[in-house]
Amino acid sequence: MCSFKACRIVTTILKSSEAIRADELDPLAQKVADAAARLPQLEEVSVEEARALREERGNPFAPASCDLADISDHEFQVNGGTILGRVYTPHNRKEGLLPGMVFYHGGGFVLGNVEQYDTVTQRIALHSGCIVVSIDYRLAPDRKIKGIHRDGFDAYQWVFNNSNSLGIDSGRIAVGGDSAGGNLTIGVILLCKKHDFSMPSFQVLIYPSVDLPMSYPSVEEFASGYFLTKEGMKWFRSHYLQTPEQAYEAELLFLEQDLSGLPPAFIITAGFDPLRDEGKAFADRLSEHNVPVKHICYTDMIHGFLSFSGGISAGMDLIEEIGNELQENLFIG
Question: Would residue 70 show up in a list of annotated catalytic residues for this protein?
Fold first, then answer.
């Protein structure tokens, strides 16, 4: 088995504070996109077939595992069911409670699980020094979007209420996730605001889905051939929305919400991602509401590149950036 450094192809990392595309797609990202285009497309298969295909193929570009103090699974009750949280505890050189991060995985609210993100969340714990709790929330079509947001909120409450036993300082908890997990992160924060529950200290939004009507130009610009497709996005929506019209419900139109009082944010977009423009739009909206926000666009990347950080250098760079931001915002005093 090759080492992590040996497996990863090191290339120049292209980043910008603007949501723009590079002249060319990163070569390895291009290979990933081309390989995805040769597979059966989501709109051609059932949910069960899509999940089975993902399990069967695995992810050859997942990052390698790393040395942590402990990894443990915890089940807890939520409304109508049970959710698993996997807790990643890094080695701590100091006594006392550590900052924490609640992580929500991507997959369009239909695919994905804690296991498929296992080494990604390991690496976030390693590079940040935070205790990371990865949430195996219930998926569509059995659970629809508002129920998924509630599951995420209940999971955050569980982490907060059990923070001492988890080794986490309840005053220093971040929330974050990628793609649909970014949408879930925002949903959780807005539920904290609505229910006057203790707000997270920081948020990490990795190429988040924030515009369910799919109205931004990048959706059409990268409609096909770049890993996440417009038809795939419509397939996801068909499973997690109650009806197509629900995409226009005021509660789910995050870009039109009152975002004042939300925690500082780190937002990541990708240059060749259909979600690129809405991610930047959300960063701009946070700024308009006087929320501190930092935005980075990896200009030669596709959607999902965090998951391929074992092969794509920009993915590991992103993990390191997330680690740095968590340290700067949570390791205070």
Answer: no
Catalytic option among 273, 277, 295, 307: 273
Measured N-to-C along each axis, helices 145-161 and 180-194 cross at an angle, to the nearest 10 degrees, of 70
Please report the beta strands in 6-90, taking only residues with DSSP state E, as ranges in sequence order: 15-16, 70-78, 81-89
Cα separation, 281 vs 114, in Å, equals 29
Indicate yes or no: pTM above 0.85.
yes
pLDDT by residue (tens digit) across 198-248?
Answer: 999 999 999 999 999 999 999 999 999 999 999 999 999 999 999 999 999
**What digits encode the pLDDT tens for the residues 127-153?**
999 999 999 999 999 999 999 999 999
Verify whether residue 300 is a known catalytic residue: no
**What does each C-alpha distance from 244 to 212, 234, 252 come to in angstroms?**
10, 10, 12
Active-site residue, from 128, 163, 179, 218: 179
Active site residue 195: no
pLDDT level of residue 95 (50, 70, 90 thresholds): confident
Which structure tokens are listed for 70? 């402990």
* Domains (range + CATH), the chain: 4-330 (3.40.50.1820)
